[in-house]
Amino acid sequence: MKAFDTYLLDRAKQDGAHKLESYRKLGGYKGLEKVLKTGLTPAAVIDEVKKSNLRGRGGAGFPTGLKWSFMPDPAKDPRPRYLAINADESEPGTCKDRVLMERDPHGLVEGSLIAAYAIRAQAVYIYVRGEYRLSHDRVRDAILEARAAKLVGKNILGSDFSCEIYMHKGAGAYICGEETGLMESLEGKRGHPRPKPPFPAMSGLWGQPTTVNNVETVFNAPFIIERGGAWLAGIGTKGSSGNFLCGISGHVNKPGVYELPFGVTAKEIIEDKAGGIWKGRKLKAWFPGGSSCALLTGKDVDVVLDHDSLKARGSSLGTAAMIMIDDSTSIARVMEIIARFYDHESCGQCSQCREGTQWLAQIFRRIAHGKGQPDDIDTLDALAKGMAPGKTICALSDAAAIPTLSAVRLFKDELMECVRKQRDPLAVKQPEYAVAGGHH
Ligand SMILES: Cc1cc2nc3c(=O)[nH]c(=O)nc-3n(C[C@H](O)[C@H](O)[C@H](O)COP(=O)(O)O)c2cc1C
Ligand code: SF4
């Protein structure tokens, strides 16, 4: 792997960086100061972010500057407006925002304030995954410290910019990470996604203009302001700029969260960062960006990690959470677990998703447990095609259908064999589960 500069995790690697004093010593709040003390207008901040080509890190890769520019002109639309930070981080395999929140929470506070300034929001709501207790506490403490230092609240740093930051804990529902489900949940209702349009920029939280951004996305903002949009645009590849946090998990020797520039190959990450596939086994399949992406095979590790290259391979970058699956693993079992997750997390509003996720879970379960029926693979394919793309209120239905379609396409023979033999030849025997301390 070629040498590259890091910035996202530099502070996080220092002990005590979560405290305001250390954060400031390490150069923190310089971006916010630049915005407020040099009289940068909100439009100029948005322009700089547009120049940087920053794309959202929450899964969809939407251009951030463009998203911010969708917020209405306050001269024509004086309604209150909000920024919601998506810290729900529930996509299976994804654990990058947690590192930022636990180890560098002021980076999130500063990034949120710059984003709020750009979209002229008077309040930020940070929606944190309920299980992330340390993340919650560290961000809460950072907000308290920042408020005491006049970095949050009224007339920040003596300017006329005022902004409050509030926190909200999720209660363990994946669907509350979907941006409109998140807003419903913040409003105190069930996390049922809303049909779009209207889009959040026109009618979001409490019906007011709202922008929803992922933690890692706004974390980039202070660096862009300090170093310039052209600096970030110069890192990575043409359509994907900057560094990103890659969470690699599963059957590798050194799972973890690593900072990398877009443009590295999956092979480089597996070998140079994750210490290779474990137990001397071979890579059979992998998810490049969380379980909602299409599976790729072990042969696809030459692919470059960025939005366009993964799209060209029929998958997507998602949250850059690589889940590695070795050649001793049963695909039927992997898909049984994944389909069960989506079945459990579907909110039930759309029939394709409510019924479809349940059927996928049942069929993968029976295939994995030696009870598959001759037409099951075709049924899986037809079902998944009826669930995606874009047929439902939100993308959870797609998230269940996409890995299914890839499993059926890439591992049809293996799934058929389970059905033909009425057993899964790769089923894990009981003792290995017992040793791993897992459940069956
Ligand atoms: C079912 C579902 C779950 C999602 N969960 C998350 C999540 O946990 N965190 C996140 O940032 N985005 C999540 N998203 C994506 C958000 O809807 C939204 O696109 C994102 O927060 C936008 O931020 P960005 O533009 O900064 O990437 C999810 C989407 C779907 C469909
Ligand atoms: S697609 Fe699924 S999770 Fe999304 S709104 Fe419809 S039923 Fe709910």
Could you explain the architecture of this structure?
It contains 19 helices and 9 strands. It is α/β, with parallel strands linked by helices. The chain folds into 3 domains: 20-233, 3-Layer(aba) Sandwich (Rossmann fold), CATH 3.40.50.11540; 243-326, Ubiquitin-like (UB roll) (Roll), CATH 3.10.20.600; 331-436, de novo design (two linked rop proteins). A 5-stranded mixed sheet has the order 6-5-9-7-8, with helices on one face. Strands 3-2-1-4 form a 4-stranded parallel sheet, sandwiched between helices. Helix 5 packs across helix 6 (105-119), helix 5 packs across helix 7 (133-148) and helix 15 (351-368) packs antiparallel against helix 16 (376-387). The longest helix is centred in the C-terminal third of the chain and has 18 residues, at 351-368. The protein is globular and about 75 Å long. The model is unreliable at 432-440 (pLDDT under 50). The protein binds flavin mononucleotide (FMN) and iron/sulfur cluster. Iron/sulfur cluster is lined by residues 175, 193, 346-350, 353-354, 392-394, 396-397.
